[in-house]
Amino acid sequence: MSRKMLIVEDDENISELFSLYMEREGFQTATARDGEEALSLFKEFSPDIILLDVMLPRLDGWGVLREIRAESNVPVIMITAKGETTDKVSGLQMGADDYIVKPFEMKEVIARVHAVMRRVASEKSEVRQLIFDNLEINMEAFELKVCGKRVDTPPKELELLFFLASSPNRVYTRDQLLDEVWGFDYFGDSRTVDVHIKRLREKLEGASSKWSLKTVWGVGYKFELLKE
Prior knowledge:
By secondary structure, the protein is an alpha/beta fold. It folds into two domains: 3-123, Response regulator (Rossmann fold); 129-225, Winged helix-like DNA-binding domain superfamily/Winged helix DNA-binding domain (Arc Repressor Mutant, subunit A, Orthogonal Bundle). Helices cover 42% and strands 24% of the residues. It contains eight helices and twelve strands. The chain has helices at residues 12-24, 35-45, 61-69, 85-93, 106-124, 155-166, 174-182, 191-204; strands at residues 3-8, 27-32, 49-53, 76-80, 98-101, 129-132, 135-138, 143-146, 149-151, 172-173, 211-216, 220-225. A five-stranded parallel sheet has the order 2-1-3-4-5, with helices on both faces. Strands 6-7-8-9 form a four-stranded antiparallel sheet, with helices on one face. The chain has a three-stranded antiparallel sheet with strand order 10-12-11. Helix 3 (61-69) links the parallel strand 3 (49-53) and strand 4 (76-80). Helix 2 (35-45) runs parallel beside helix 3 (61-69). The protein is elongated.
């Protein structure tokens, strides 16, 4: 089931841009052009995350955030043309989960959305350990066991493996993996992912015929669970 995003933005071009990119990221989107419509859609649509512009007709973003926080902890990312630190602090104190200042790049918006969703999912879920045939990934102890033996693994390699194995058979592009594992502020070469995958494969080689780190040519990588 796709995650749902409510986009609250009175600029039609920006709203359509958000919808286009977020639907590509797997979100089902709904859009509101003013604060009152946003509150109405919030109750009808039950979004998993909200992109909320501050400057809105009828009821501004702060008012919308205040009403939402009175009944829900759904993650909210504020979007505004104002960049003053006091505005950011006020937004975060009111319960915003993140803050993006116009003008922005969509790569940053996408990365921040995924970062917030990942943080919320981590807070909700107690699953920090994954177990497959001859493979155990324990993020509480930051430990990897292959065929029952502990294998020394650098943090980013372990985080990458855990992320892929958390969604078996789902394909991720290199850019998506950089955003999800390294974060939106990483500006290195996407081949970094290839290097980490290569090192993981060396550690996992021959461990099991029931799963594998698979390259999907022209797309990216996935943790593939094989049907028995």
